[in-house]
């Protein structure tokens, strides 16, 4: 129980810290973000002195409210899902923009991560079992290279060579915008799947190396444990020994690693979406950044941070289920 | 404590077994030319310090060695028996060489005929599986005809046999005490009524009180279920109490073999003597205890001749040049006590030393060290 | 001379270490010596726009007529410098936090662990973007913010290691000898953890290399500086893709991947040296024929 409380407090603190940081940064950074946004708005022809005042209020500059009051107002807005108005997609609310783009990101993310983790772990198990073989050596070297790839670079390469030059896969948008209409039709689903192949492939290739190597090393260590030897001595089938005894234990570090790597996968996905013009929130983020649309950018970032923290929490709970040893009180 | 019945059938015959480790800087001979016979219902004790090769030997017999270890030569002949109550290992009762078994045959051999109790139960038990599951999966693999309920009943019965409450079926290894964990491993070992149970230092990791409990239990179970035991330990005094036949190993070879009585009354090899008497007795006159000076040799550089000679208080010329063979101590003696020592070889020594002589030499060594 | 020889034997100890240090060494050499051979301003605009690789421009030119190869070489120095500098920064933070947390225990450990865990759980890139968007766009800003978001993993590893070392005899001995706490931590415990710190440094450097490049790609870098990440930013921004100028965006990313791989190989090599179980015994193939194992 105590273990669980400890873990929960981390997540709560993380959520609070992210929200508060998001509040403070614009107020304490050098320069006047309100003016920047104002001039941007002016380009759209939507500017008046009142707008500037409103912006300054939003960013907490030159207002009469104390910091504390501003903070409470900010929290209140957050709870109501009020993240501000987007310049880029003016006059839409940030939350609307996010709401529209979020499903695409979620789909791409879950599919890619699932494939990457499962495939990576399985291959890792086989690499360890067939240690020293050609399979193991080749894959190990390959993975070392993939481990260090920058997501957007791989995306660029994929777009250029597989999409642009060879024309094998589509390399922008989530579905064939010209011909297909969103809905639950087969056409749409197929088109969406086809468009998702390249982005998903990019993410999978960039992230699979980590799982593979973690699992491989973990399996190698586990395979030398006494309980694996005993399992063999008991005359159990190789399959049972490998999965129920070895892999079942070896996966624990992978799960821990999964939670931590989640952060970088999410970050990577954002970058990949940009390159593929995939209409997820990563793409929206990029629009926000390049247009200095702070409300949009911050909104997306905050959401991403909170979501990742939440996902970490889920994985943590999963770990408690997988490893009976942590359910008891344990000293650090 | 039973006398060894000469009419008992042989169960396991190890013939000239040698095990090597292929390390990056050469071959190490972990076990060299070991032969012994285990009879039905017998307790065979394997004694020796760490590095003597006793555990390696046990793993070699059950073919559990991991690379870079490999069996260099020898045979392990097993004599199966037709048993009415369970699956047949072999359809016939012809002896088989365990080392020649195919993987399918080996899987059938394992645990049905030969089970192992590992040294550290905490390491030998799967930490994420309940002990009930660890008993039952053996049953599931080897007794496909058994129903789930029957398996559970058998598991409860086994736990009861070793003195663990049945509600522990759903416990994880880390939730049990050290003694209970070891008993659980014993329960798993008994699951298929194996003929041979190898126990690799089963009580070394436990405190003395629990040790005694577990040993008594093992003997009790043996009387009930009639299995044979190969008991591996460094504590020779334990073996003298419970083993029928004892083999003492040093640097990968057997240096003495005899019954518990032989070793108790008349240990022949100076090493055996030293081993027995390195444990202080509760009674008897006060004496300086030295144990055996020096330490076991590095297997990569075993001394020429008799491996023990650098530490032996009775070593002489021939010991440094000729490797002693394991031979009967007194030609035509009523027991089969054997020792690999030139002191008992008429070609080198005219008169074999008595136990008193050996004791005196050790005492002299002990006294001598005091003046240094 | 002895130092050199010791260094050489260390490097050739293990195949992976050899290849890894070869790669890293190559890049470091280019970083140090490369720009000395370049006599042209990498940012100089020419009229040779978007030309594919040729004798005059080894890797072609970009949208502004700038020579890609020259930019790559000059960029090597920048990227490597900032990657290593940031790596050092991160190591300093994580070692300090890890050591203090592990050794002092109690409330200090509770607080520091909490902070470490929070940073572990929050995704690094989004947090970094959040921080960097309000500040000036310089390389230093990026370095500081990347360091700020990437120290947690190393701290956790070091804390675990310190905890296990804390109860060892040499520590107790030093403590009973009246050694002051801070001296104990930095002069007794730390030297014993150097291999872990080294491994942590290498892993961190890979991460920060990617993180810095990622931020630069998004445009947060200093546009007047030439670096691999900035080159990618330029390439994407100026639609190198659509214009088919693969020679513009392929090389910088490739360099990042290669340098990263070199560092990773080094790391695996060190892992294998430290943990013998991960090593492969030579001559294993011969043994497979034997019947030692079922």
How would you describe what is shown here?
The complex is a heterotrimer of chains A (332), B (372) and C (294). Chain A has 12 helices and no strands. Chain A has 332 residues and is mainly α. Chain B is an alpha/beta fold and 372 residues long. Helix content of chain B is 30%, strand content 21%. Chain B has 11 helices and 12 strands. In chain B, the strands form 2 sheets. Chain B has an 8-stranded mixed beta sheet, sandwiched between helices. A 4-stranded antiparallel beta sheet of chain B has the order 2-1-4-5. Chain C has one domain: MetI-like (MetI-like fold, Orthogonal Bundle), CATH 1.10.3720. Chain C has 13 helices and no strands. Chain C is globular. The chains are: A mainly alpha (332), B alpha/beta (372), C mainly alpha (294). Chains in contact: A-B, A-C, B-C. Chains A and C meet through helix 1, helix 6, helix 7, helix 8 and helix 10 of A and helix 4, helix 5, helix 10, helix 11 and helix 12 of C.
Keywords:
heterotrimer; A: 332 residues; 76% helix; globular; C: 294 residues; mainly alpha; MetI-like fold
Overall geometry of chain A comes to globular
> Mean pLDDT score of chain B, rounded?
83
Q: Unreliable runs of chain A, pLDDT <50, ≥5 residues?
A: none
- Helical element count of chain A? 12
The percentage of residues in β strands of chain A lies in under 5%
CATH topology annotation of the largest domain in chain B: Rossmann fold
What is the CA-based Rg of chain B, rounded?
A: 22 Å
Spell the H/E element sequence of chain A: HHHHHHHHHHHH
Task: Look at the structure and give the mean pLDDT of chain A.
Answer: 80
Mind describing the biggest β-sheet of chain A? none
Structural class of chain B: alpha/beta
Give the N-terminus to C-terminus distance of chain A in angstroms.
14 Å
> What is the string of SSEs of chain B from the N terminus onward?
EEEHEEHEHHHHEHEHEEHHEEH
């Amino acid at each position: 129980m105590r273990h669980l409380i400890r873990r929960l407090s981390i997540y709560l603190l993380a959520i609070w810290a992210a929200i508060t940081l998001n509040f403070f940064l614009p107020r304490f950074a050098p320069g006047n973000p309100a003016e920047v946004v104002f001039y941007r708005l002016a380009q759209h022809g939507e500017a008046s002195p009142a707008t500037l005042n409103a912006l300054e209020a939003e960013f907490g500059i030159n207002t009469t409210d104390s910091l504390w009051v501003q903070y409470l107002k900010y929290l209140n807005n957050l709870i109501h899902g009020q993240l501000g108005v987007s310049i880029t997609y003016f006059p839409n609310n940030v939350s609307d923009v996010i709401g529209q783009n979020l499903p695409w990101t979620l789909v791409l993310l879950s599919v890619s991560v699932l494939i990457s983790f499962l495939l990576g772990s399985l291959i890792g198990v086989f690499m360890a079992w067939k240690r020293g073989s050609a399979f193991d050596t080749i894959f190990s070297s390959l993975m070392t290279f993939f481990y260090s790839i920058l997501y957007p670079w791989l995306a660029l390469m994929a777009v250029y060579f597989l999409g642009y030059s060879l024309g094998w896969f589509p390399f922008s948008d989530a579905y064939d915008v010209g011909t297909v209409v969103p809905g639950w039709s087969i056409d749409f689903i197929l088109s969406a799947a086809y468009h998702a192949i390249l982005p998903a492939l990019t993410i999978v290739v960039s992230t699979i190396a980590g799982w593979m190597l973690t699992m491989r090393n973990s399996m190698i260590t586990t395979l030398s444990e006494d309980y694996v030897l005993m399992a063999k001595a008991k005359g159990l089938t190789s399959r049972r020994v490998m999965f129920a005894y070895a892999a079942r234990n070896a996966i624990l570090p992978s799960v821990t690693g999964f939670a931590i790597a989640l952060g970088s996968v999410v970050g990577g996905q954002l970058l990949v979406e940009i390159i593929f013009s995939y209409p997820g929130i990563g793409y929206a983020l990029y629009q926000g950044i390049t247009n200095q649309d702070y409300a949009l950018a911050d909104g997306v970032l905050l959401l991403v941070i909170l979501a990742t923290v939440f996902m970490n929490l889920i994985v943590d709970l999963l770990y408690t289920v997988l490893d009976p040893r942590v359910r008891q009180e344990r000293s650090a | 404590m039973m006398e060894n019945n000469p009419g008992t059938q042989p169960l396991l015959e190890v013939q000239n077994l040698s095990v090597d480790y292929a390390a990056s800087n050469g071959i190490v001979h972990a076990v060299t030319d070991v032969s012994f016979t285990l009879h039905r219902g017998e307790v065979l004790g394997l004694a020796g310090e760490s590095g003597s090769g006793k555990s390696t030997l046990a793993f070699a017999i059950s073919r559990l060695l991991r690379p870079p270890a490999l069996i260099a030569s020898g045979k392990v002949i097993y004599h199966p028996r037709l048993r009415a109550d369970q699956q047949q290992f072999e359809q016939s009762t012809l002896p088989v060489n365990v080392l020649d078994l195919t993987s399918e045959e080996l899987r059938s051999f394992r645990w049905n005929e030969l089970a192992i109790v590992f040294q550290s139960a905490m390491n030998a038990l799967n930490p994420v599986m309940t002990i009930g599951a660890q008993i039952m999966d053996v049953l599931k693999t080897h007794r496909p005809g058994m129903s789930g309920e029957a398996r559970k009943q058998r598991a409860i019965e086994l736990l009861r046999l070793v003195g663990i409450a049945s509600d522990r079926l759903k416990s994880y290894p880390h939730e049990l005490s050290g003694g209970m964990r070891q008993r659980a491993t014993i329960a798993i070992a008994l699951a298929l009524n194996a003929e041979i149970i190898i126990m690799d230092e089963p009580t070394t990791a436990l405190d003395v009180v629990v040790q005694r409990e577990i040993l008594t239990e093992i003997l009790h179970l043996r009387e009930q279920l009639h299995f044979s035991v190969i008991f591996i330990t460094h504590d020779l005094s334990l073996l003298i109490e419970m083993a029928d036949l004892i083999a003492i190993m040093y640097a990968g070879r057997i240096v003495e073999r005899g019954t518990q009585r032989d070793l108790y009354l008349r240990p022949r090899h100076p090493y055996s003597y030293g081993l027995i008497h390195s444990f202080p007795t509760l009674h008897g006159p006060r004496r300086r205890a030295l144990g055996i000076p020096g330490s076991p040799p590095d297997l990569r550089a075993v001394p020429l001749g008799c491996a023990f000679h650098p530490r032996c208080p009775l070593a002489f010329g021939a010991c440094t040049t000729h490797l002693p063979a394991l031979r009967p101590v007194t030609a035509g003696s009523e027991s089969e006590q054997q020792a690999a020592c030139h002191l008992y070889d008429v070609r080198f020594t005219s008169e074999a030393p008595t136990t008193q002589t050996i004791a005196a030499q050790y005492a002299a060594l002990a006294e001598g060290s005091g003046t240094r | 001379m002895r130092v050199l020889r010791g260094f050489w034997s260390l490097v050739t100890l293990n195949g992976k270490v050899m290849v890894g240090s070869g790669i890293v060494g190559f890049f470091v050499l280019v970083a140090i010596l490369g720009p000395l051979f370049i006599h042209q301003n990498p940012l100089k605009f020419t009229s040779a726009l978007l030309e594919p690789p040729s004798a005059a421009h080894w890797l072609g030119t970009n949208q502004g007529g700038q020579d890609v190869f020259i930019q790559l070489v000059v960029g090597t120095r920048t990227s490597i410098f900032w990657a290593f500098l940031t790596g050092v920064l991160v190591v300093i933070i994580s070692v300090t936090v890890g050591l203090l947390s592990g050794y002092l225990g109690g409330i200090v450990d509770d607080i520091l662990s909490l902070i470490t865990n929070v940073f572990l759980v929050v995704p690094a890139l989004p947090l970094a973007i959040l921080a960097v968007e309000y500040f000036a766009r310089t390389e230093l800003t990026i370095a500081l913010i990347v360091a700020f978001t990437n120290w947690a993993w190393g701290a956790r590893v070091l804390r675990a290691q310190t905890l296990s070392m804390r109860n060892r005899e040499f520590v107790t001995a030093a403590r009973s000898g009246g050694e002051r706490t801070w001296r104990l931590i930095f002069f007794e415990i730390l030297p014993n953890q150097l291999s872990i710190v080294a491994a942590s440094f290498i892993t961190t450097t890979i991460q920060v290399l990617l993180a810095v490049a990622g931020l630069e790609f998004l445009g947060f870098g200093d546009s007047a500086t030439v670096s691999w990440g900035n080159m990618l930013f330029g390439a994407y921004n100026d639609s190198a893709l659509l214009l088919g100028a693969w020679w513009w965006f392929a090389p910088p990313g490739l360099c990042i991947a290669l340098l990263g791989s070199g560092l990773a190989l080094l790391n695996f090599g060190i892992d294998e040296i430290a943990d013998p179980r991960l090593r492969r015994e030579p001559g294993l193939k011969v043994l497979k024929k034997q019947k030692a194992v079922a």
